[in-house]
Amino acid sequence: MLQYLTQQRSDLTIDKLRSLIEEKKQKIGAGYLTEQGALFLVAADLGISLDQQRSPLRISDVYVGAKDVTLYGRILTIYSPRQFARKDNTETTKNRTMVIYDDDHSTIKIKLWDNKVQVPEEMGLRPGDMIKLSKGYVKSGLDGKPFINVGMDCQLEKTKEAPSEIPDLNAMTRTIENVDSPADNIIIEGYVRSNPRMSDYRDSRGNMSKSLQLQLFNEDGTKSLRTIIWNVSETRLPKVFKIGSKIRLIGVRIKSGNPQYGNGDFEIHGDEGTVLSAPEEQTDIETMTLRLVSIGSNTAGDRLISLGLLGDGKLVSVIIDKTLVPNNMTSGSIIECVPSRIFGTEITLTLNDSYIRILDEGTQFPSVSDYQTKISDVVASNVPYIIEAIVLQQPNTTQVNTRSNEMIEMTDTLVGDDSGEIRLIGWRDLGHSINSLALGDRIRIIGAVANNGLQGTPEITLKPYSSIIKINSKI
User: What is the fold, at CATH topology level, of the domain defined by 172-277?
Assistant: First the structure.
C-alpha cells in the first residue's frame, strides 16, 4: 500500500508516509487505529483513493481491507466443501477454499461461500487451471494472513491469458534434493520406496479421520523425507499406488522434522486439499493371479481380510468384499482377479468394479513353503513373514493399558527354530489363535510382521490377515 501511494505522488516517500501514519494515530488516539487503518485516513487526506488500486493486482500486493480486487492466478489446490453452524444463529452455511499462485510464486487462499461453493464443479476447475477473479474483497485469516472472500458480487472465470506469464504445475514442482528450508503451498515430486501406511486418528474437532504416511525418496534413493497427509480421503488417491511409483504432491508444506520419527531433517505435511497424483498414472488395472495363503479369522464387517502370495514371491494383503467371495475359496486357493485398487502391498476388491474366480488345482503356482524365513533372518519391517517354528513357552495373556487409557488383551509366547528364538504376540482377538497352542506344538505362522521390542530385539506380531497352522495341517 505504501508503494502504491508513492507511485501516485512523486513528492511522497515511504518515510514521509510513516511519519503521517504516526501523526494520524496520535491525533485519533492510541488503541483506535492500526497502522493500516491510519494509512486509509492518510490516503484520504492526500486525495488518493486506495480503491483505485483495483487491478490487476499481484498476489504479493494484496492487503487486508482491499475491495473490488481483481487478480489472475493459477489453481494449486481445491478443498472439499465444509458445512458448519453460524455463531449468531442456528443456520448452517457452507464454504470451501481454493489456493492460487501467480508469476512470482506467491500464493493466497480464496474462500467460496454458499451458492459459490459449487463453482469449481460447475466450471470444471482443476489444479493448474488459470482463473481471473473480479470484485473480491480481502479479509484477515486466523493466522493473520490475507485471504480473498468470494461473495455474491465476486466473479470467477477460467482464462488462458494473464498480464504476466504464470508458470504451470510442472515448472513449480520441486524434487527431494531441493528441499532446504520450511515452505508453504508447494509441489514436490519423489519416489515411493517403502510401503505406504494408512492410519486412523482423532482430529482437533474430535472426529475420526485417516492419515497417509510414507517415505518419499529422491530418484537414486540416497535421500528421503517423512511424509504425512492428514485427513486424507481414499477417493483422492490414485487407483494404482505401487512401491517404486513416482508421485507428485500438490499443495503441501515443508516443516522441520521431528527427531523422534526420523533423522531430524525436514518433513512433508499435507491435508485434505493436497492432491496426490502419479505423472505416469496407471488407470487400467490388469488381471492378477495369486495364491491365498491365509484368511484372517478376524474379518472387518463386510470385508474378508486375507494374505496373498504373488508369482514373484511377494506377499500382499488382499481385502475382498464378502459378496464377491466364491463358495469354494479357502486358504491355499489360487485366484485370478481384477482389483479395484492397489495401494502399496494392499489389494482391494470391491463389489462394483472387481472380478474374482478360482483357478483349477492343477495351475502351476508357488506354494507357501517356498518362501519361509528363518528366525535369525527376521528384521523389523512392514513385510509379512512366513515362519515355521516350535512353541517353546506356554502362551500367556495379560491386560495392557494403552496410551488412550484403554485396557486391551495381549497374548504372547516364545517360538523357535534351528536358527534362534523370537517372541510371538497377538493383540485383542488375534491372541486367541496363540492361546490355542500348546508347549511343543510345531506350527507355521503366516503373515506375522516384525518390529523391535523393548529390548531392541525383533518380535513378530499377528495382523488381521495372519493365521497359525499346525504343521500337519495342509495349506
Answer: OB fold (Dihydrolipoamide Acetyltransferase, E2P) (2.40.50)
